[in-house]
Design brief:
The chain has a single domain (about 25-330), classed as 7 Propeller (Methylamine Dehydrogenase, Chain H), CATH 2.130.10. By secondary structure, it is mainly beta. Helices cover about 5% and strands about 55% of the residues.
């Protein structure tokens, strides 16, 4: 009887594992692999990325390696590594000042570097867990999620914090709607999405979530819609920015950590650690999944670069496989 029960549990476990990875690859023409770029001596977890589009250079936060990796995706080579960081999570390229800013989760420091020389140009201490970053090119401000609950507003020209917006828990993915002058923030530990009015500098709405672990977020600024990626269960949700109401819902790749919306093609891209990139067409308030491209397990962070018709996936080192960037052409 014990052996039978053990075998039954084994079968259940197999079914659960298979259900997480059972979706077959399809829609391969949506993403064409252009090249893979080895990342020498990069170990551990990889977090978010940004790019200098003109130079076709990607800046990658190698959290587990305590480094920022600079990769030339035009010529397919790793060109520099800024070492000695403290669990870098977020990174942003600032064209107006030709600088990079890195948000460190370990010590809460936001460090500025010249993007040509990679020399340090300034530091802002946020205390702890500096994370996701957004840059407002119109208002000339940087926004950083950090600590046990806050969004810091930073002047990139002066390298100073100019405002602080309190939140109930640590913020994860967030997006800025420049026209509405609002920031929409995933606050997973509070099971909600907070809406910040930049005119008043405070939270004006708190939308409770139907699911748990709302980490990545994307935005359609033209239609004022945000897209939320949940992990428990793995769901993709479209929400009206004005009302907080759900517009559309779909299943999503597991362990999603990055989410993007391309307004030109009306496509949503999601990368997840369970081993896939999901692509959806979003039209008439409906998600239609048009692709699922298999990836290395654990490769959950990515970067959509519409101006280059490119999609970059960070793949951490696993076993005998070295870390690499996979560069795709989008359809």
């Amino acid at each position: 009887m014990i052996k039978s029960w053990t075998f039954f549990l084994f079968l259940c476990a197999c079914c659960v594992c298979n259900s997480c990875h059972s979706q077959k690859s399809f829609g391969a023409d949506e993403l064409t692999l252009r090249q893979t770029i080895p990342l020498a001596d990069v170990k551990g977890r990889i977090d978010h990325m940004d790019a200098d589009v003109k130079k076709q250079v990607v800046f990658m936060s190698a959290l587990g390696n305590n480094s920022l990796e600079i990769v030339d995706i035009k010529n397919g080579k790793q060109v520099h590594s800024i070492k000695g960081l403290s669990e870098p999570q977020g990174v942003i390229f600032i064209p107006q000042t030709n600088e990079i800013m890195v948000a460190n989760g370990g010590n809460g420091g936001c460090q500025f570097y010249n993007s040509e020389t990679y020399q340090s140009t300034g530091t802002i201490d946020l205390g702890s867990d500096a994370d996701d970053i957004r840059y407002d090119s119109i208002g000339k401000r940087i926004y950083v999620g950090y600590g046990s609950g806050g969004i810091a507003e930073i002047d990139p020209a002066k390298h100073v914090k100019t405002a602080d917006i309190k939140l109930p828990e640590h913020p994860e993915g967030f997006q800025l709607d420049k026209a509405l002058r609002k920031i929409f923030v995933n606050v997973p530990d509070a099971h909600q999405i907070d809406v910040i009015d930049l005119k008043s500098g405070g939270v004006v709405a708190k939308w409770k979530t139907d699911y748990s672990a709302n980490f990545p977020m994307a935005i359609d600024e033209s239609s004022h819609i945000i897209f939320i990626g949940y992990r428990h269960p793995a769901k993709l949700v479209a929400i009206d920015e004005g009302t907080g109401k759900t517009i559309a819902l779909s299943d999503l790749v597991g362990d999603a950590d990055d989410l993007y919306y391309d307004g030109r093609s009306k496509k949503v891209y999601a990368s997840g650690g369970s081993g896939a990139i999901n692509i959806y067409l979003f039209e008439k308030s409906t998600f239609k999944q048009i692709a699922s491209v298999s990836t290395r397990s654990g490769a959950r962070t990515s970067l959509l670069i519409p101006a280059l018709n490119g999609f970059v996936l960070a793949e951490r080192a696993t076993g005998n496989e070295a870390a690499q960037l996979s560069v795709y052409n989008t359809k």
